[in-house]
TrEMBL record:
Alphabetical GO biological process terms: phosphorus metabolic process
Species assigned in the record: Salinirubellus salinus
Comp. bias intervals (Basic and acidic residues): 263-273
Keyword annotations: Kinase, Transferase
Polyphosphate kinase-2-related domain residues: 29-253
Name of the molecule in the record: Polyphosphate kinase 2
Sections of the chain in a coiled coil: none
Keyword Nucleotidyltransferase in record: no
PANTHER family, A to Z: ADP-POLYPHOSPHATE PHOSPHOTRANSFERASE (PTHR34383:SF1), POLYPHOSPHATE:AMP PHOSPHOTRANSFERASE-RELATED (PTHR34383)
Keyword Kinase carried by entry: yes
Region (Disordered), start-end ranges: 252-296
InterPro entries registered for this protein in UniProt: P-loop_NTPase, Polyphosphate_phosphotransfera, PPK2-related, PPK2_PA0141
Gene3D superfamilies named among the record's database cross-references: P-loop containing nucleotide triphosphate hydrolases
EC category name: transferase
Amino acid sequence: MTEHPVLPAEESVLHTADEDDLYKDSGKIKKKYYKRELERLQEELVRLQMWVREQGLRVVVCFDGRDAAGKGGTIHRITRRTSSRVVKVVALDKPTEREQTQWYFQRYVEHLPAAGEMVLFDRSWYNRATVERVMDFCTDDEYREFLRSAPEFERMLQRSGIILLKYWFSISDEEQERRFQKRSNDPKRRWKLSPIDLEARERWVEYSRAKDAMFTHTDTADSPWYVINADVKKHARLNCISHLLSQIDYEDTMPEPTQLPERQTDPNYERPAIDSQNWVPALYGSNPPASDVERS
């Protein structure tokens, strides 16, 4: 078992590609290099996942930021190759009437990780300091109490052994407008654009003030905010994942390729006729012929 350093890594395109060839004229990373680097980082995430499970670690990662900043897309890339039994995503809806009467952090506590789990919050308890504050979904007293309580809550988590990381996805006014317009024009994305998104955009400056106040009260030495430049989605994903990997000490426990055992055979087993089963129509490709007996 050896330590597996992530940064710097000789396999990274930052080391293997010519810098003049790495980026387009626009300054964005070329697709082939993005895919290559993402696959490398996703392989590292699998190693991290194995270490978290084997060592019984508990990890919480908060993803917060304005609408359309790319939080969900980054989370999707993180979880694409990992197990949902180990790396879990939590995206809570607005609180129910019952939850509104509970301690504010209570509905988040029930989703905290057990040993060997990593929980990614797609918007975390910091909703109270941003969306709820700007949209008047909480009272002034509730808001002020949150700013006092959040650092204490996070210290409690860390004292219990939880590894806590907080990411803020920062997006410019112009880029958010472009992404909102793209959602509006695309029927496949239109569901992502809600009335609250539009109203929050109208209150851009209020949202900025709320974010600034949140950082003032909750960007602590023990639990700092890490800010991601999210104007270029691909850059944001790579930067966030590489930073996440660098923040947790883990070792490479990837097993060697497994030698598969020979398949069991039994000359006395007779498979039921294929045409006796209700097969889904093969609109693409074809179903096996009736003579195929090597399947179940």
